[in-house]
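Here is the promised in-class demo. Please do not try to memorize the tokens; focus on the logic of going from shape to residues.
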């Protein structure tokens, strides 16, 4: 008796060969433009060029796809700027460069405007606890990044020891999230960069004897 492979048929529900990264990028753009709730499985499958059984087999469900697309977004767009931010020796340059990069990312011509992580936090049903918790964790990870870098700046003697790190890290994180909403409102790149340039002014004056 011929097998399914011999007849050229795939087992029901088994995903055909596809470029996972390309599929995630396609799903990301649907979620980014429409939001999690409005994005339908039909729209996602059409964009990814797969059928519903393949989506469920590959990603579990719509929520699983969304979370993987969100991780893909973080890796593709924010990993490099974050690494540069942590590795730049000068805290003032680190903050200035990071927020300048953020302005470019948030208004990149080939992507929807705004930060996917920030926008994903809006209008998610309370029942979607896994998504809510995952998005919150991502946002808190960014706040922790700011905290870690500020503490390093204190250790390096660049900013005063009495700097309120939790408050300043929270302010920088809030400022970053606000930039995303501003980008969604249709600001020009020059306007967003000018606003981003204000981030470095949130830092305290350099510790005595250290030039800014």
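The designed amino acids, position by position:
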């Amino acid at each position: 008796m011929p097998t399914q492979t011999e007849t050229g048929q795939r087992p029901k529900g088994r995903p055909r060969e596809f470029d996972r990264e390309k599929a995630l990028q396609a799903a990301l753009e649907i979620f980014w433009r429409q939001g999690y709730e409005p994005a339908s499985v039909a729209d996602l499958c059409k964009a990814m060029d797969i059928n519903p059984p393949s989506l469920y087999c590959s990603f579990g469900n719509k929520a699983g796809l969304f979370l993987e697309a969100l991780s893909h977004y973080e890796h593709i767009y924010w990993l490099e700027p974050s690494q540069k931010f942590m590795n730049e020796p000068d805290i003032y340059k680190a903050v200035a460069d990071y927020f300048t990069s953020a302005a470019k990312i948030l208004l990149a011509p080939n992507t929807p405007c705004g930060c996917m992580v920030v926008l994903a936090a809006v209008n998610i049903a309370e029942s979607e606890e896994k998504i809510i918790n995952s998005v919150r964790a991502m946002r808190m990870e960014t706040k922790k990044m700011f905290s870690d870098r500020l503490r390093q700046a204190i250790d390096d003697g660049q900013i005063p020891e009495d700097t309120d790190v939790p408050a300043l890290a929270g302010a920088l994180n809030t400022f970053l999230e606000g930039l995303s909403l501003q980008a969604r409102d249709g600001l020009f790149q020059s306007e967003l960069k000018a606003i981003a340039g204000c981030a470095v002014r949130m830092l305290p004056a350099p510790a005595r004897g250290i030039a800014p």
